[in-house]
Amino acid sequence: MEPMDTVGKSKEDVSLPKATMFKIIKEMLPPDVRVARDAQDLIVECCVEFINLISSESNEVCGREERRTIAPEHVLRALEVLGFGEYIEEVYAAYEQHKLETLDSPKGGRWASGAEMTEEEALAEQQRMFAEARARMNNGNVNPPRQSDSD
């Protein structure tokens, strides 16, 4: 039986995409430096453990505030508690940059901030989308055929 490192998951179920991690490792090093495959695997395992550690401590910080949702400030506080305080400024800057990038992305755009659409506009858009969906469901028929009682 495998050890359960994460709630409900075996160690093999919890990992990071190795190709992405290897690319990050390669980009951080000078071009003439090579990294052995087992060293790359070890770095990936360290990253997984770090994520587990930060997540667990963030959960503890969140719980002490009697909250159920871990917020960015809980993660930053967890970094401080775990002795990674010197990274907080850089982590916060990366978080702020991420927020800016996701607001400008198609996924984050006008739906993420909610500030670009009034409630009335959102309701009108919702009604328009419902009407389109109904039309598609009815194959373009506004009034779908009714089944007779004799069927």
Automatic annotation (TrEMBL):
Provide this UniProt record's keywords sorted from A to Z. Answer: Nucleus
Q: Where in the cell is it found?
A: Nucleus
Q: Major location, coarse class?
A: nucleus
Q: Cite a GO CC annotation.
A: nucleus
Q: Which GO terms describe its molecular function?
A: protein heterodimerization activity
Q: Where is the Transcription factor CBF/NF-Y/archaeal histone domain?
A: 15-79
One Pfam family per UniProt = CBFD_NFYB_HMF
Source taxon at top rank = Eukaryota
The record ties this protein, via PANTHER family, to: PROTEIN DR1 HOMOLOG, PROTEIN DR1 HOMOLOG ISOFORM X1
Q: What is this protein called?
A: Transcription factor CBF/NF-Y/archaeal histone domain-containing protein
Q: Write down the species.
A: Araucaria cunninghamii
